[in-house]
Amino acid sequence: MEKKGHSQIRGHNMYIYLLFIHIIAAVTAIGAIICYPLIMSSARTVGQAKFALVLLQKTANLPKIGGILLFLTGLALGFLETDLFHELWYLISIAIFLIILVILAGLHPACIKQQLTLLLQTQGDDLPDAYRLIRRRSAWLEGIANLAAFISILLMVFKPF
């Protein structure tokens, strides 16, 4: 039986620590993403929608921070285990992450801003049709982000190819 050298043990420990941070970052980022549609689907009035949108704006940093950590630790894990860069599931996970990043860092915040701006100009408590139209686009983006996150989790757990 071959003994592990000190640097091999240290490298293994680094991998475990990075994997732990990677998992915590995934829970933080994906947990927030999953909650977006749940929060927004409960808004029935202008006041409720304003509150829900402000809440989404306040929690928008969770998927951003979690996503950045997820990406960096994922790459770091790849550099520690360079064979990962030859695994299709790993490469597809990175591509999916970039799709989620475009949605959550660019497209979705713009939709939230449009919705909030529209609601601030709305008199009364009935949600206007223009809001509902923008909200549908936002819900569609949230659905894509959730599906992408789900597929990414499947790829990382089952490593099908």
From TrEMBL:
Keywords: Membrane, Transmembrane, Transmembrane helix
Source domain of life: Bacteria
A Pfam family reported for this protein in Swiss-Prot or TrEMBL: DUF2269
Listed transmembrane segments: 15-39, 60-82, 88-107, 139-158
Name listed for the protein in its UniProt record: DUF2269 family protein
InterPro entries referenced in this protein's UniProt entry, alphabetically: DUF2269_transmembrane
Taxonomic placement: Bacteria, Bacillati, Bacillota, Bacilli, Bacillales
